[in-house]
Design a protein that fits this description.
globular; mainly beta; 29 strands; single chain
């Protein structure tokens, strides 16, 4: 048997790094049922193993999920996931202990909420169904307790929200408007009107907060918003001729080289080259089902997930797996997050939106 000290140091270091890396476990947490579409499986969280072909691992039953999920976001610092439901409920689930830390109901909301990168505050839109002109916008909560800190009136039908990964901005979509807040003091940076064509639909942003991509409400396509000027600068349509379906789903690959959008009625994802401005058509993926639409990506950029059970290889644009529960039944939804564990502790979480992650400050070792 060779003595460890006779092995070259470089080999020891490589082996040590490999051991550390192999200790990380990568999972997809899907909350079910989705309030926006059929195809769920029970009330709670389904866990899939990303390191084993998206194999179903187990479920966590959460009875209050029967109200239907409106959003699902997470915080590494809090090692917690935050769920919002159609019943104006928002709650905190500890990913390590698997206990509900708090569960509150509010007068308005809660739609697809977001949490600041420091884990301190949650911003919950009052809901696409909430049309009160003087108080439709954000509920701001203390992430530790769920206590309401303030309400921020913004616009009608407040629906989707994003906290920028660098901690600087909070984004909110209301009816044909995108509002950008400074996270430090909740001041408004931009009110960008007349975007998205009609209604309120998903959007995404790049990691440098340069551009937002806002889904269109009457056609398959998106608006490009310049976040430095607060102006919509391009409208891009998918297909050889305009497709008169709404777009409900848009995501940037983590390296920001591609932009994917969904045509849920047409059972298709359209892919654009995002290295050009405006982005140019590149490819498409046929899906197994229709649905309300969504697009998000694994943190390593390997997989795309949408509103169907299809797991798509980003490089080949092929469906490589199907999300199924313990009974072999395909499950659908769009309220999911990626969670990485090391020795039972949460070390990284993804986002329910397909956010750009190419900024060098966001690419750093886990720890």
């Amino acid at each position: 048997m060779r003595n460890l000290f006779s092995v070259p140091l470089a080999i020891v270091l490589v082996c040590s790094v490999s051991i550390v890396q192999s200790a990380d476990k990568h999972y997809l947490y899907m909350s079910t049922p989705d309030a926006a579409q059929k195809g769920g499986s029970g009330n709670g969280i389904l866990i899939f193993d990303l390191d084993d072909g998206h194999r179903f691992v187990r479920r966590i039953d959460i009875p209050s999920f029967k109200e239907g999920l409106r959003g699902f976001c997470a915080s590494t610092r809090r090692h917690a996931a935050y769920f919002s439901t159609t019943g104006s409920r928002l709650g905190c689930f500890d990913l390590e202990t698997e206990k509900i830390l708090w569960d509150r109901k509010y007068e308005a909301g809660c739609d697809r909420a977001c949490i600041t990168t420091d884990g301190n505050k949650i911003y919950a839109p009052t809901g696409w169904w909430w049309n009160a002109p003087n108080n439709s916008g954000f509920l701001v909560m203390d992430a530790a307790t769920g206590d309401l800190i303030k309400r921020i009136p913004v616009g009608l039908q407040a629906h989707n929200s994003i906290a920028s990964l660098d901690g600087q901005f909070i984004y909110l979509g209301t009816s044909t408007k995108l509002t950008v807040f400074r996270a430090s003091d909740d001041s408004v940076v931009w009110d960008i009107n007349d975007v998205g064509e009609a209604g309120v639909f998903p959007f995404t942003v790049d990691s440098r907060n340069r551009f937002a991509y806002v889904c269109l409400g009457r056609h398959v396509g998106f608006d490009v918003v310049d976040l430095k000027t607060g102006k919509a600068i391009h409208r891009v349509l998918a297909g050889d001729k305009p497709i008169a379906h709404r777009t409900h789903g848009v995501g940037l690959t983590p390296d920001e080289t591609e932009l994917w959008i969904s045509d849920q009625e047409g059972k298709k994802l359209f892919i654009f080259d995002a290295t050009q401005m405006p982005p140019k058509p590149k490819a498409s993926v046929d899906l197994s089902l229709d649905g309300h639409g969504w697009v998000a990506f694994s943190l390593d950029g390997r997989y795309a997930w949408c509103h169907t059970p299809d797991v798509i290889d980003v490089r080949t644009k092929k469906i490589v797996a199907t999300l199924k529960d313990e009974n072999g039944q395909a499950v659908t939804g769009s309220k999911f997050i990626e969670v990485h564990f090391r020795d039972g502790k949460v070390v990284k979480v993804g986002d329910q939106f397909g956010l750009g992650r190419a900024h060098p400050a966001l690419i750093k070792p886990q720890g």
